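Complex record, two chains
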Amino acid sequence: MSTETGCAHCKGADEDRLWADETCRVVLVHETGFEGWCRVIWHDHIRELSDLTPKQRDHVMAVVSAVETGLIAKLAPVKINIASLGTAAPHLHFHVIPRFVDDPAFPDPVWLPAKRTSSRKLPDGFAQSMAIHLQQQLK
Amino acid sequence: MSTETGCAHCKGADEDRLWADETCRVVLVHETGFEGWCRVIWHDHIRELSDLTPKQRDHVMAVVSAVETGLIAKLAPVKINIASLGTAAPHLHFHVIPRFVDDPAFPDPVWLPAKRTSSRKLPDGFAQSMAIHLQQQLK
């Protein structure tokens, strides 16, 4: 496996992992005000989407889509945002972010300064039910 | 074809179109300081990635990847950013954005306020050579 010293996504410490296979993993990010934010992280230290083979690309996007359908089913967000930026951390990962009218940045991108605080909480058992959804969708 | 009145991506007016097939199109966005920014727009007024069939999803991501390899080959950016947000305009589209250390927001996401101005210009014939790249990659 290709790894790079100092890369947080290679290290993968302190992750709240919902699902994984031999190629990638899904983690729940605990970003204040943006409850339900997930990240799909390719295990290998790959830089760009186009560094994957077509088969690997189809697979990682199937995982992104399964995260999306889980978030829609369990949280009923207004919109899902998907982003693979990595400008500062060039290790392939996708943010999959449920958006709500009362989230801190809505309707702007989540990276903009907060306009409001959000008291939204995840429903009980969210992480476990997402894990079950991903297992069912991706088997 | 599914369209919605008032949706800019359904209308598709004044686009600098580089490539299209029966499902989606690639346009060059003229965003000051972010020369080379492309958008892959699904023709139908589809809301989320997971509204596509797996075959459609694989196809649109192959188009995104072909835009990425074209931008890398022609502009040698530091990093590519990919994002499908659509919080305000919920019609499936992907931003494919070449990032440079001297772009207005580097290394932050492009949506943050500009830190600097950029005098970067696209090389002569860029749009035409991207169009040829996409035709070759996606035939």
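Note: The first strand of chain B starts at residue 16 and ends at 20.
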